[in-house]
UniProtKB/TrEMBL annotation:
Keyword line: Transcription, Transcription regulation
Protein known as: NOT2/NOT3/NOT5 C-terminal domain-containing protein
Family: Belongs to the CNOT2/3/5 family.
Originating species: Photinus pyralis
Segments traversing the membrane: none
Domain NOT2/NOT3/NOT5 C-terminal: 36-148
Gene Ontology biological-process annotations: regulation of DNA-templated transcription; regulation of stem cell population maintenance
């Protein structure tokens, strides 16, 4: 109770607010999202300048684009890494990971990096599940392949 008396904003969060106090007409058939324009400005947005006169050239309407599934095996590794890192939690990220895996890239769970074996160096086998040696690693900071000892 003390918090609610001392901090009116806290009371609004706990108890709630009457929508009418912030200008919403709850009896209207109009959607609420059309009644609220901005949290900071009550004025409706201005119409775009020459919005009705704009026409998209027909050459920008592309309809014969093949789905990414049929093209992903043709992408270079840099493009696959870009898809992987720029499409988190998306089907495209999964497709890029599958294609990278088919090209002998592996995701290192501990270091959170993509790596592949260096063809010129044979890793030292420490145990059935562990190796030590030089690997080619995809460096996301410099966006290139680097050779590292892991």
């Amino acid at each position: 109770r003390t918090l609610m008396n001392n901090y009116p904003d806290y009371q609004a969060m706990v108890v709630g607010m009457d929508p009418i106090t912030i200008g919403l007409d709850i009896n209207s058939q109009e959607m609420i999202s059309t009644q609220v324009y901005s949290l900071f400005d009550d004025a409706p947005p201005r119409p775009t300048v020459n919005g009705s006169k704009f026409r998209l050239p027909e050459c920008y309407n592309v309809t014969n684009v093949q789905p990414i599934e049929s093209k992903i095996q043709n992408f270079n590794e840099e493009t696959l890494f870009w898809i992987f890192y720029s499409c988190p939690a998306d089907v495209k990220q999964q497709m890029a990971a599958v294609e990278l895996h088919s090209r002998n890239w592996r995701w290192h769970k501990k270091h959170q990096i993509w790596l592949t074996k260096d063809e010129h160096m044979t890793p030292q086998i420490l145990s059935p599940n562990h190796e030590r040696g030089f690997y080619i690693v995809w460096d996301t900071d410099n966006w290139r392949k680097d050779r590292r000892e892991l």
